Amino acid sequence: RRSIAIAYESGQGDGAEQGTSEPQRPHWEPRDWRQQLERIREMRRKRDAPVDEMGVEKCYDSSAPPQVMRYQVLLSLMLSSQTKDQVTSAAMLRLRQHGLTVDRILQMDDATLGQIIYPVGFWRNKVKYIKQTTAILKQKYGGDIPRTVEELVQLPGVGPKMAHLAMNIAWDSVSGIAVDTHVHRITNRLKWVKKETRYPEETRAALEDWLPRDLWREINWLLVGFGQQTCLPVNPRCNECLNQDICPAAKRR
């Protein structure tokens, strides 16, 4: 099941025409969020987290034809699920050495594909998903990837986070905020959501409700690296964090 948040533009209809428009409710936004964001940008200034050196944007062949490049972006996203950037990057390098195109993957047997991508997380499932998705791309999209989130999430092994990142990286289009485990964890710790969220898609909808759209592209890259280096899942390095005095979750010693 997927929930789709629909935002309506404020129009001139109804009471506005009669001069009896209702007063607008104040727009909710988290306390101190702009200051927190600036400090996270400062902590990420060196761009030296694993995501910066081995993330999806570093995994594809930027000199490949656009259609091949987009396919490689999608595959690197599929491989990256439940997998460290270092492992994904190494698997993508091995795939590219074998020729990473739609036709080459379709010609490759499952055992060979498995040997190449191992040890990415859930590699057996990913072999199946990659083969199924690649066949669909060949049959339905002429070897390219879909241009919409709605079509991308219909592909086997492709979730909402991957779809939004694919739109951003492959199509240079901001369709929504890509929420992974780091973004989900950190935005809950910072109370950037009105109430605690349990699932990434819930977090995405909560963030898109208030975060200015011009920040949507940046927020994934920013928070993923911050989560890899400072705001760790277990034992976060609060004493090294510039936000320790204004973070609701900070462990103050």
UniProtKB/TrEMBL annotation:
Its cofactor is [4Fe-4S] cluster. The keyword Iron-sulfur applies. CDD domains: ENDO3c (cd00056). GO terms for cellular component: mitochondrion; nucleus. Residues 1-35 are annotated as: Disordered. The keyword 4Fe-4S applies. Residues 79-229 form the HhH-GPD domain. One of its GO terms (molecular function) is 4 iron, 4 sulfur cluster binding. Its EC number is 3.2.2.-, 4.2.99.18. It is found in: Nucleus; Mitochondrion. GO terms for biological process: base-excision repair, AP site formation; nucleotide-excision repair. Belongs to the Nth/MutY family. PANTHER family: ENDONUCLEASE III-LIKE PROTEIN 1. This is Endonuclease III-like protein 1.
